[in-house]
Amino acid sequence: EYVGENNDHEYRDFVNATDSQGNTAVHGAACAGRLDILTFLINKCGASVTLKNTMGCTPLWLAAGYGHEPVLEYFLLSVYNHDNEGIQVVDHLNSSGDSPLLAAASRGHSKVCQLLLEHMAKNNDDDDFGNLKSMLNNCNKSGDSPLAVAVGNGHETTVDILLEWEDKYNDQDKTNLNKINVKDLTPLLTACERNHGQIAAKLVDRGALPTNDKDGKSPLAVAAFCGCVDVVEQLLKVEFGKSLLNVRIETTGNTPLWLAARTGNAKMVNILLSHGADATITNIKGQTALQAAIQ
Questions:
Q1: What contacts 64, CB < 8 A, 6 or more positions away?
Q2: What is the band of 5 on the pLDDT scale with cuts at 50, 70, 90?
Q3: What are the chain's domains?
Q4: What is the signed CA dihedral for 190, 211, 277, 205, rounded to 10 degrees?
Q5: Is the pLDDT reported for residue 84 higher than 60?
Q6: How far apart are CA 39 and CA 47, in angstroms?
């Protein structure tokens, strides 16, 4: 209270003091979701809302990443022009290249994602929604967009929200739907690796391409090799998956059935066969799926 009643430079320096990780009291309040403490520090003590810790995170970034909606709303509605940084604060990237939206998406904080996107749409500088598109398109150092990290972590509700915004503002080029990260994976390939069947189906429905991974495996082949039954069943419901059923990997000649047989996954083999997989196809070594199974 004494600090609040004596709001001069000396006391502002005090409330903006940092710990060994560069966190101020405002960082701590934002991280803990303590709106009461946060408003006191800012309104009464003149604490800064734009200082970054050693990881490059602002208090707003932490509020978004930890899913504290009331704190984030306070930042967005009351502190937007605190230091005349506006858009830069809302879409600031930390040292890993993660934006507040990306941090929220990776943890499945769907309401936080909606708040951030709505705020950016309302406060966009131009008719082309360039700032909003930038928020959707910002990728971290792994080359993953907010959509990609939501897909990778299986956050279906968050994926739904991001796909709606992608449809509205990135629909022409489907920028993030087919974006390849540093591991040469698209969001669909990631979903296929991690058995997120419903998400994979939604990506395909939105127009995801059958891009191969770095080893030449199609999305169906990836799912078959990884034992991701849910994904395979979803993909084979539509022409997208059926068209990949007997496609051979260019470098090895292996089919999804061959890969499933090689891993000893009887359930996967039966699913593929029941949908018309050709057991007579051989790879470049002349091996059939049966021979792969008995090796």
A1: 72, 100, 101, 103, 104, 109, 112, 116
A2: low
A3: 1-182 (1.25.40.20), 183-295 (1.25.40.20)
A4: 70
A5: no
A6: 9
